[in-house]
Structures are given as structure tokens and as C-alpha cells.
Amino acid sequence: MFATTPVLQVSSEFGSQYPCFSTRIGYRDRRGTLCPGETGFILESVPAEEWTTAERVHRYLGRADEFPRRAEGESGLLEHVPRDALRILDLGTGDGRLLALLQIDRREMLGVGLDFSELMLTAARERFADEERVELVEHDLAEPLPALGRFDAVVSSMAIHHLEHERKRSLYGEVFDLLKPGGVFANFEHVASPTHRLHLAFFAAIGEPLEDEDPSDRLLDVESQLGWLRALGFDDVDCYWKWLEMALLVGVKPAEAG
Ligand SMILES: C[S@@+](CC[C@H](N)C(=O)[O-])C[C@H]1O[C@@H](n2cnc3c(N)ncnc32)[C@H](O)[C@@H]1O
Fold first, then answer.
1. Residue 72, in any domain of the structure
2. How far is CA 127 from the centre of its chain?
3. Domain of 41, in residue numbers
4. Which of 21, 50, 160, 211 has the highest count of CB atoms within 10 angstroms of its CB?
5. How many angstroms is it from 157 CA to the middle of ligand 1?
6. What's the pLDDT tens digit per position in 218-244?
7. What does pTM read for this prediction?
């Protein structure tokens, strides 16, 4: 028998196989291959109402500012979005936090925020109640992006990791198409740790018990995502900031691209 190491979160490898479930416990053999133990995987269903319950949304919004090192990652993102970017799309905008930060130094910008959570969009509508330069659109990112015109920048903060990996990849392709030549994609994201020990370290660092891990997370490593962005044709692709499972991934659409 292979010596096995318990793995608590293996949904990244198996998520697309079980679109309605998050695999919570499996085993990694000595070659590093993920496989079921003798009793098979233990599966925990992911509630479809994730991000639609008031408790979940209010808990996130109430603690959003307390997230360790968040300001650092967001500052990095803001530095990568040109000050003269006029049209900016925010994927998984939540209550519009990132659009509001972008507006500080870009008073002329026209923001579009997408989210599928009515509660989040209600919070965003309140934030931008007197603001005509921000449009909020209800949309499930699991589906192809709607026709919204082209953008100088597409941004996202802690949202795309909720999508299945295949959808992350196709979404990045749609982002490339939506960007104007020279446009920037900047994704401040929750990414997978290279080891389970580091995954535990991340949860310890943010002061959350592992049991509270978001069952809708589909964490993916930085390298895979950077590889996809390069393959799609983005330039200057890199991870520009990283702290444990938080990372800033950026790519620029070449000026000569259509
Ligand atoms: C952790 S919150 C981040 C919100 C905001 N970007 C911020 O930085 O505060 C994740 C957001 O992604 C949204 N989200 C998750 N899955 C989504 C999907 N499939 N389609 C659209 N939005 C989604 C949630 O509704 C939520 O607003």
C-alpha cells in the first residue's frame, strides 16, 4: 500500500468532476497523486445559496477591512490600472469595494460591476446611489460574459476562485477579448497553497478555523493561471504581489492585438 497523506481540500483537482460538490477529504499518495482512500472521498455539498444568504454576505462585508494584508494587495492592483483608464469592469464586484477604490484617483472612470448575488448588488447600489458613473449588472460568472462593450481595464478581487477551473480559463479568454489593445487585467485573488501545511498556515494567519473554509472555493495555484494568461496572448504576465494564499495576477493585452 502507498503511504498516504490526508488532504482536506482537493476540490481543485476534482471540482469539475463533481460540479455540485466540494471534495473535502482525500489522500495524496507518495507520488503526490490525489486518490480516494479505502473508504472513498467524503463529499460535502456546496449550498447553491452561497453568497445569497444575508448571514454570509453580512459576515463578509462586516469583516472585509480586517482581512490581513488586504490593503497591500489592493494597492498593488490600483498601481497597475492606469489613472486614465476610462471604462473598467469589475468581476464579482460584491458591494463595489474595488470600484470605489479605483474611483479615488480616476474621477472620470466609468465602472461596470458584475455579481450574481442580489444582496451584494443591493449593497453596491447603496454605495453608488448618487453615482451615475457606475453600472451594476446581475450576472453569473459561470456563464459567458454579456456584451458590455470594450474596457481599458478588467479587475477582480477575491471572486474568480469561486469558479470551476475550466471556467476560470475560459473567462480569462473572454477578458482578453473585452479589453482594448493595451488594456490591463488585474486579479487580486485567493490562490491555492503549494502544500497542505501552507494551507493550514494561511488559515492560522487569517485567524479562521479550517472548518470555516468557504465550501464554494475552487482554489488554483498561481503558476497554472499565469500560464493560461500567457497562452491567451497577455504580455507582462506575472504575480506582482503574494502573501500566502493571496496573490495579484496581472497581464496586459498587447497594443497591437485586435
Ligand atoms: C469574497 S467576495 C469579494 C467581493 C468584492 N470583489 C470585494 O473585493 O470585496 C466574492 C464575490 O464574488 C461573487 N461571486 C462568487 N461567485 C460568483 C459567480 N459565479 N458569478 C458572479 N459573482 C460571483 C460573490 O457574490 C461575492 O460578491
1. yes
2. 22
3. 2-45
4. 160
5. 8
6. 999 999 999 999 999 999 999 999 999
7. 0.83
